[in-house]
Structures are given as structure tokens and as C-alpha cells.
Amino acid sequence: VELVESGGGLVQAGGSLRLSCAASGRASSLTAVGWFRQAPGKEREFVAVVAWRGVGINYADSVKGRFTISRDNAKNTVYLQMNSLQPEDTAVYYCAAGTSLYSGTYPWGRPDKYDSWGPGTQVTITS
User: Fold this and answer.
1) Are 18 and 4 within 8 A, CB to CB?
2) In terms of CB atoms within 10 Å, which of 41, 88, 90, 103 comes out highest?
3) Residue 106 CB neighbours (<10 A)
4) How many whole angstroms from its chain centre is CA 39?
5) Angle at Cα 83 formed by Cα 92 and Cα 34, nearest 5°?
6) Strand 9-12 to 116-117 pairing
7) What's the order of all strands across the beta sheet hosting 77-82?
8) CA 66 to chain centre
9) How far apart are CA 15 and CA 17, in angstroms?
């Protein structure tokens, strides 16, 4: 599965952005799509994950109540709506494809549980 992110940009604190992750190739093999972010000098950090079929969503505590992940299976696209953005949200945001059996207890927060990654999109929040 190939993934491409879009929608990043530069916004002021308190603003919003919506990121998109478009999947191509063997999208039928997807079981989950996750969003991660990586700030300069820091490790890649889990943001959110959504099951590709059925219900199943999980968020990092740092974004709960501000970010919303959703999917459009007809378009093979996953979205990340980001509201109330803060400077600490500045990072490169990546989406990642998972093909393992989806369950709420699977460690989707670990980057090594994903099979392919997009190139990333830069999000910069100014104070």
C-alpha cells in the first residue's frame, strides 16, 4: 500500500488544519491507518489510529479532544482534523498503513507495527 499525505501548512496557535492520507495499491489489505508525528530532535510519536473497517479509533492523550481521525473508504482516504493547534504540535506528520488483524488491544501506538509510510507533511504552528 502506498500512502501520500497532504494538507500541512503554517497556521497560528488556536487555528485548525485538516490532513489527508490517500492510499493506493492494495488498499484492500489495510486493517488500520495511523497518524504519527515527529518534531526535530524527537522520536516519532503516535497521534491517532482508525480501523479501516468497522469501528475502532484511538488517540494519544496529548491530542484527545482537539484532533479527530476519520476515514472515507470510497476514496481510500483517512483524515486528521486538527483544532486548537499549539506550537508544540509542530512536526512532520506521517500516516502509516497497518495490515495486522485490528483489535483495540493491538499496540497500534508503536511505529514498528505498521507496514508502510507516507513521505510526511510539515505542520508548523506559530505563537
Assistant:
1) no
2) 90
3) 17
4) 14
5) 45
6) unpaired
7) 2-6, 17-24, 77-82, 67-72
8) 13
9) 7
Rounded CA separation 108/102 (Å): 9
Report the Cα 102 to chain-centroid distance in Å: 16
Q: Which three cell numbers stand for residue 114?
A: 505498521
Contact partners, residue 28, CB within 8 Å, separation at least 6: none
- Give the torsion sign (CA, 30, 1, 47, 87): negative
Q: pLDDT tens per residue, the chain (127 residues)?
A: 999 999 999 999 999 999 999 999 988 899 999 999 999 999 999 999 999 998 899 999 999 999 999 999 999 999 999 999 999 999 999 999 999 888 888 899 999 999 999 999 999 999 9
